[in-house]
Amino acid sequence: MSPRILNGRRVYTSYLQHLMEMPRFAKGYRSLLPLFPHAIESLDLSSYDLILSNTHCVAKGVRKKPGAIHVAYVSTPMRYIWDMFGEYFGRGKTGFLTTLAAKLVRKPLQRWDVRSTAGVDHLIANSRFVQERITKFWGRESTVIHPFVEPAKFENRFEAPKDFYLIVSAFAPYKRIDQAVEAFRRLDLPLVVIGKGQDEAKLKRLAAGAPKVRFLGGVSDEALGEFYRKAKAFVFPGLEDFGITPLEAMYNGRPVIAYGKGGLLDTVTESTGIFYPEQTVESLMEAVRMMEARLGTFRTEDARARAEGFTREVFRRKYAEFLTGVLPKELPAKN
Length: 335
Fold this sequence. Notes:
The protein is α/β, with parallel strands linked by helices. The chain folds into two domains: 4-148 and 313-326, 3-Layer(aba) Sandwich (Rossmann fold); 151-309, 3-Layer(aba) Sandwich (Rossmann fold), CATH 3.40.50.2000. The chain has helices at residues 16-20, 36-41, 85-89, 96-115, 128-138, 177-187, 200-206, 221-230, 244-251, 281-294, 300-307, 312-326; strands at 4-6, 9-11, 50-55, 69-74, 122-125, 143-144, 165-168, 191-194, 213-217, 234-236, 256-259, 273-276. The strands form four sheets. The chain has a four-stranded parallel sheet. Strand 8 (191-194), helix 7 (200-206) and strand 9 (213-217) form a beta-alpha-beta unit.
């Protein structure tokens, strides 16, 4: 097998990579979840003095040599074994055997998830919401450094909005695209939905009685930027750890309608969007009506300015400052 190369550097993978290349597991990687902890612990990092991990599942569980320093950037503790188990494995979400298997491995994975943080010296959360979850589930303190939007993907201009609202999302159950489809069906307002995922067939069936709801699948970055610029507003009905797409919408000058919990509380403000208090169709409908009445009060310049506070340059500066503050002046010399 030829070595994998990323940005000119060789990539070393666990044994799960070989399983993923088998047709049986190519689309069903979730069935390998019980093996994830062992796979990450099997990686040999004994020659490294500094480990920087980016984790939403098990990457923080790598083993290190005595004296090495591990800094973990945390997108979230595993949602599907903690507070959002029902969103992934509740009634009607998966088959009986999958749900049964998930229930059997949930407690062991929770114990491993907590235990594996002992090898992490410093935790970075990607939002205040994730910071709270780290404290709740792991009993650890963390520092917040937000992710970034990529302005280079989009043209540096604004356009007059057209008569449609926009969603850009993976079609996973916890994203609650179903609530948005139902809300816009009842309101009889145009909604464009860009994305793909496991709930696609279900969502399209739900939209069968909503002729103004359009599913476009995946689109190019150029087309995506055009949809962002021309939308009345961006709709985000899910409970998200951070949420990049609302920032992309704001960078393109558009206001956001969002469920008022989660990572978006760090990014969307009163001058750049509207929050609704309950994750229900009715609450979302009321927020859309409010946006219809207030659309002219949101300025494209305010949305862009807010998004520009979350760029790659800002992230790099804050991350470098954090590392400077926690690392020793000199790392141990190699033997």
